[in-house]
Amino acid sequence: MSRFLMGVLQVDVGNNKRENLRKIESYIEKAVAKGAQFISMPENINFIGKLEESIASAEPIPGETSAFFSGLAAKNSVWIHCGSYAEYVPGEKKVYNTSIVVDPAGAIVASYRKIHLYDVDIADGPSVRESDAKIPGREIVAFDSEYGRMGLSICYDMRFPELYRILALKGAKLMFVPANYTLFTGKDHWEVVLRTRAIENQCFIVAAGQVGMKPYFQAYGRSMVVDPWGTVIAQASDGEGVFVAEIDMDRVESVRRQLPSFPNRRPETYAWE
Q1: Active site residue 203
Q2: What domains can you pick out in the chain, each with its CATH number?
Q3: DSSP the chain
């Protein structure tokens, strides 16, 4: 089975977890009504608040939020890529920014902790230090589905091409990039970088984003799906909503045959020390 429908949620998450999850459930139902077989959501999907609030919102995995998504996946017989949310770490004052994937039976089949933390001070722009609240992950994660192998990343990871090349070499044909991206950088970099990751790895990119004013910046939105040729095949407007895009995983092999960049790699020459 190479063709399926990917539902992408674009939402404005705030600091009320119960209301956030109620909203997410309604959008998942809309995606299912549109025929989605796989649903992807943004970073920080269950809570966005100030630093101390975000840490306090953390949960163990499995936990309340994962059980919520597992129930929805099983109820609707769909895959759910749960964007990311704060994972509680016993004995630590900081948390992981963690993405999970739930299969149509409700089982957690993959879990990824964000590797690259957004520590940035932009002149005349936002100042954000994700490491003040988060612990970086250390494992690159791909998983298998009946549609093919897929890879996980989160937001700022997109600026580090090594991660996506390794995922591609691990066999990933589709990569998720859930995000809470700033308007300041998003207007110039979001689409350019996502299309570049798709082109250089000849894979699908599914990037669900937050919208709205957050405690420290305005979120950019413009969620999109990019095909292995680098074409944006679906994109959200500036508000909340859900769209569905058809994914044909056979397109990956077709593009890789036309442009054989993987067979033409010269890994024996890539050492730099």
Answers
A1: no
A2: 3-269 (3.60.110.10)
A3: --EEEEEEEEB---S-HHHHHHHHHHHHHHHHHTT-SEEE--SS-S----HHHHHHT-B-SSSHHHHHHHHHHHHHT-EEE---EEEP-TT-SSBEEEEEEE-TTS-EEEEEE--S--EEE-TTS-EEEGGGTB-------EEEETTEEEEE--GGGGG-HHHHHHHHHTT-SEEE--B--BHHHHHHHHHHHHHHHHHHHTSEEEE-BBEEE-SSSEEE---EEE-TTS-EEEE--SSSEEEEEEEETHHHHHHHHHS-TTTT--GGG----
